[in-house]
Design brief:
Helix content is 41%, strand content 20%. The chain is α/β, with parallel strands linked by helices and 174 residues long. The chain has one domain (2-173): Response regulator (Rossmann fold), CATH 3.40.50.2300. The protein has a five-stranded parallel β-sheet with strand order 2-1-3-6-7, sandwiched between helices. A two-stranded antiparallel sheet has the order 4-5. Strand 1 (2-8), helix 1 and strand 2 (39-44) form a beta-alpha-beta unit. The longest helix is centred in the last third of the chain and has 32 residues, at 142-173. The two termini are 18 Å apart.
Amino acid sequence: MRVRVFYSWQANRPIATNRAFIREVIDTIGLGAAERSLDVEACLERGEGNGPEREIPASIFARVESVDLVLADVTCAIEDATERRCAPNPNVLLELGYAAKCHGWDRVVCVANLAHGGVERLPFDLCHRRILGFDLPPDASAERIANERARLRRCIRAAFAAIAARMVDERRAT
């Protein structure tokens, strides 16, 4: 089954251990022999080719509406040391909220790099959602990156497959 994914990324943390790392994981889902039934198409938003900047939000919202599920990087990006709290990138939060409105939380998968803060530090309404964690500090070794990539790939693939199965069931019911 083909699954279209919108990837809501943030650039507040090192690219190699967040945005590019997660994108590589998404891009390799469905490539294994046992996974050929799941064809994942990721929509990586950068706002390129969308005309004036004022049109970028509308373009992003249209893409969120057009996909089957959303994967959002909710890694701690903004920290409040006095409160011991943190928040993801504001753009990710906006896209995440819109995705939940459009598709429901059952079609939203969140990931977080725990090297920058645990999920318990995220806003209350978010920290109790399904969040797949990985732990990659900026100075992570190649071996650690490979191990975390394989583990996160299994977790995301399982989440995507479960969502795809529910989509099939929903289509059969209609």
